UniProtKB/TrEMBL annotation:
The lineage of its organism: Eukaryota, Metazoa, Ecdysozoa, Arthropoda, Hexapoda. Gene3D superfamilies: EF-hand. It comes from the Eukaryota. Residues 12-36 form the EF-hand domain. This is EF-hand domain-containing protein. InterPro entries: EF-hand-dom_pair, EF_Hand_1_Ca_BS, EF_hand_dom. It comes from Dryococelus australis. Keywords: Calcium.
Length: 77
């Protein structure tokens, strides 16, 4: 069975391979999933997430955080 993280890397969501998704990577990933959002909206999603779940890597998301952001925000769409 392929791990979720390997899928994360396979689809090149984490383009710089640092283990986190930055704003540009998130915007691209959302577009691949069919969600074309303006940059300000993607930035707002990450800022809202950072306020609710503070971490040491502000402004970027781990794979688990990426899944959480998608589940919260895409159910609103």
């Amino acid at each position: 069975m392929v791990s979720r993280y390997k899928l994360f890397l396979k689809f090149q969501i984490d383009k710089n391979c640092d283990g986190y998704i930055d704003l540009a990577e998130l915007k691209d990933a959302l577009e691949v999933c069919g969600f074309k959002l303006p940059g300000w909206k993607v930035r707002q999603m990450v800022e809202d997430f950072d306020r609710k779940y503070p971490s040491v890597h502000q402004g970027s998301l781990s794979f688990d955080e990426f899944e959480k952001v998608l589940s919260v925000n895409m159910t609103k769409a």
